[in-house]
């Protein structure tokens, strides 16, 4: 079933799709908490001054006015947040006296962007972020932990193997230094487009920046180096460039590759064309692709930032990654990668023989609920056939008949006596299940 | 710790308070699903035409513009929803072909109101709603089930006994009919203010509507009748009024009182001064008070509506109730009714002896996580005392020492050998706990 968007760019889920989203959020939450991240939620609204700190994206902001504020006193002073990083920066600075550093938090919330809606672009969507923010000095292993945690989180979802691609801004900067390229920002922007253009166009765009053939060729070669094995480090060294920052970045990525635990081998690779365009990153940068579905682009990106969270002399360097959850769900639905076993939480429908005996059905239902079994009582005392249909059309697996004291399993078509104090549903029928549906 | 509001009316929680909110949402969700309600989430943004359907509250709407939309093409056409009922009505009408009726859904989302912020009033806050919507005919027991479900849900929260007060608009309308009062809306508005004014002022306000002494006295007497026992029905009959609608309403409330299961006795009472002001209710109406903290006003209100969800000839009567969750949490925090056992999900901190042996600490951590134990590795290889302090200040109960193969329980100050494959934390230390803290 496709997501519904009666207002262009503002998707809504059916109850069945919402079960999928809830399951995804629950699995992500579990992994984030396994790593000690605290749940944070910030208000949806920020002063425009905060929202405009990041520059480029400010054009997409939704600003707020009060309908009855005729004098316009509060007009357009505040807007809806367009990501969860800017609010985190504001929250950390505002509450640094209450927080313990390093501060590790996850945040799963809607964000809004007034972009032109298009394929896979939404104006209201959910992001799932993790960030680790330190006071003054960021422990270096946080840059290694972030992609390992996200790889584990994404691997718990019903999608083919996710692979986090890691690079370091130090490497890109160092390569530019060694090649004598001053206009690093322009190079980052072109490298960021590598996968969206042909090899010829990629080289052409670099030439247009004023780079000579040898500089272009070195960058083309660099962008092609990618792999999980530490040999990729040597491949970069073989480009024959000398620069301290480049060496530092290569050491970081090499340590990263050595730190991947056995159960995540292949989920994290070095990839030297990852640049993250104009963003505020200063160290490692990350993008994540689904194996066999790389054309959808990155589903989870981020990096290290040194200057985003700072005020006067206080600095809180951090590293974070963000999943575009709504977009990821739209990809899962489009590819039919997950099945939801039913559309309601209900496990048992208690049939009603007559309105006079509804109380007996209610008694059974309260007993089942007390034992954790999601139970509805039939809204009408219609013929059994009609009540069974109520269950069938919703995927409710059991119908309980009070008079006969029997329960019918609609999945395997069996019927047997049962007591409300002892009845135990099949484990896979207790709650709606999300079942992976791909090779 | 108080909630933080650096932007007036937009509260934010500390990580510790967020654990409380998450626990409350989890408990409410559990009860709603026990009764077969599906989780729904609607977009935050609605066309102004939808938001203005309800009349009165439209003045509080935040309208949206795009910062860069210089031509104002999309200016002020859409706004943020101010409740979850109007979006439900729109969602049901729009997707009636996809939904199964009766449709039972819960919805726990932020809403926004541009009201002047004041004690306990927020501009951004979370509501937790249940609604049951039927096609054409609402099964009568739904009006009985709604308060029973909410009573169970609220009773699962760390608050003193919640009591749902039930009345029927039919009774209030019927009484006015019998007394020959035409201006029923005015009477509803005054009755709605009963608990906020003195008895004399209450009678005075009724007089000001043009009611004579006998009419006023009858309404004063009616408003004083309240109780869980079916004898309250007789007390209303003893007022000596004759009207078919009144009788119908009394039958509804009587059946309601008889349906309260033993485990909820006292959690649901009839209370004939519940009116719900200008709202769109047509049958039963509900308000909920916390025993001993009634002065905070109703924490959960609602009622039956026949005409909210309709389009042309199609009618979807429904019944619903809404918890003001952010307000309820502010009450819990102000009264210190709940304690959170720690501020992070982390159960075990694995100490690091040196950066060279960090890998061994990571190995222990991955093993513990694989067994569902939330584990952090110390960010620095500082002296043990400093690493233990990292745990103590966050409330992390266990510190793991790799070299000695021992784990220290910081709560009871014991230390013993442990294996990552078999170590089992005390059940109450595995996750942060929310502990009720009232008589």
UniProtKB/TrEMBL annotation, chains A, B:
Residues bound to L-histidine: 83-85, 113, 127, 131, 276, 280-281
InterPro entries linked to this entry: aa-tRNA-synth_II/BPL/LPL (IPR045864), Anticodon-bd (IPR004154), Anticodon-bd_dom_sf (IPR036621), His-tRNA-ligase (IPR015807), HisRS-like_core (IPR041715), HisRS/HisZ (IPR004516)
Gene3D superfamilies, per the entry: Anticodon-binding domain (3.40.50.800), Bira Bifunctional Protein, Domain 2 (3.30.930.10)
One GO MF term attached to the UniProt entry: histidine-tRNA ligase activity
GO CC annotation: cytoplasm
Top-level enzyme category: ligase
Highest taxon in the source lineage: Bacteria
CDD domains reported in the protein's UniProt record: HisRS-like_core (cd00773)
Enzyme Commission identifier(s): 6.1.1.21
Keywords, alphabetical: Aminoacyl-tRNA synthetase, ATP-binding, Cytoplasm, Ligase, Nucleotide-binding, Protein biosynthesis
Domain Anticodon-binding residues, every copy: 347-409
GO biological process: histidyl-tRNA aminoacylation
Catalytic reaction annotation: tRNA(His) + L-histidine + ATP = L-histidyl-tRNA(His) + AMP + diphosphate + H(+)
Residue ranges of domain Class II Histidinyl-tRNA synthetase (HisRS)-like catalytic core in the record: 9-328
Residues annotated as transmembrane: none
Subunit details: Homodimer.
NCBIfam families assigned to the protein according to its UniProt record, in alphabetical order: hisS
Family designation: Belongs to the class-II aminoacyl-tRNA synthetase family.
The protein's name: Histidine--tRNA ligase
Organism the protein comes from: Mobiluncus curtisii
């Amino acid at each position: 079933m496709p997501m519904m968007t009666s207002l262009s760019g503002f998707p809504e889920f059916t109850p069945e799709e919402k079960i999928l989203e809830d399951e995804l959020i629950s699995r992500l939450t579990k992994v984030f908490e396994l790593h000690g991240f605290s749940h944070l939620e910030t208000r949806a609204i920020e002063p425009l001054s905060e929202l405009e700190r990041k520059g480029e994206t400010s054009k997409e902001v939704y600003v707020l006015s009060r309908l009855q504020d005729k004098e316009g006193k509060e007009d357009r002073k505040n807007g809806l947040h367009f990501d969860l990083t800017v609010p985190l920066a504001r929250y950390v600075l505002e509450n640094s006296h209450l927080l313990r550093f390093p501060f590790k938090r996850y945040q799963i919330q809607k964000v809004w962007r007034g972009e032109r809606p298009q394929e896979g672009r939404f104006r209201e969507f959910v992001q799932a972020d993790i960030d680790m923010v330190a006071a003054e000095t960021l422990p270096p292993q946080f840059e290694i932990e972030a992609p390992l945690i996200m790889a584990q989180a994404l691997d718990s979802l019903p999608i083919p193997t996710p692979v986090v691609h890691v690079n370091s801004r130090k490497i890109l900067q160092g390569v530019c230094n060694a090649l004598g390229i001053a206009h690093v920002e322009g190079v980052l922007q072109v490298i960021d487009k590598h996968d969206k253009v042909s090899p010829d166009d990629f080289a052409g765009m670099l030439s247009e920046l004023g780079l000579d053939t040898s500089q272009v060729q070195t960058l083309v070669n660099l962008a092609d180096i990618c792999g999980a094995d530490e040999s990729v480090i040597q491949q970069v060294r073989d480009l024959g460039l000398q620069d301290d920052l480049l060496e530092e970045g290569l050491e970081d990525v090499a340590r990263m590759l050595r730190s991947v635990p056995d159960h995540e081998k292949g989920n994290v690779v070095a990839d030297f064309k990852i640049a993250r365009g104009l963003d505020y990153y200063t160290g490692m940068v990350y993008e994540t692709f689904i194996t066999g579905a790389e054309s959808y682009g990155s589903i989870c990106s981020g990096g290290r930032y040194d200057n985003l969270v700072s005020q006067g002399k206080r600095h809180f360097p951090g590293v974070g990654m963000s999943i575009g959850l709504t977009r990821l769900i739209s990809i899962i639905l489009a590819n039919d990668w997950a099945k939801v076993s039913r559309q309601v939480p209900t496990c048992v429908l208690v049939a009603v023989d007559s309105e006079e005996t509804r109380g007996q059905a209610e008694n059974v239902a309260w007993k089942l609920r007390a034992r954790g079994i999601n139970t509805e009582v039939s809204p009408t005392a219609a013929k059994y056939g009609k009540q069974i249909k109520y269950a069938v059309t919703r995927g409710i697996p059991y119908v309980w008949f009070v008079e006969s004291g029997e329960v019918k399993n609609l999945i395997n078509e069996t019927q047997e006596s049962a007591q409300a104090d002892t009845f135990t549903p099949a484990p896979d029928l207790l709650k709606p299940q999300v079942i992976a549906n791909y090779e």
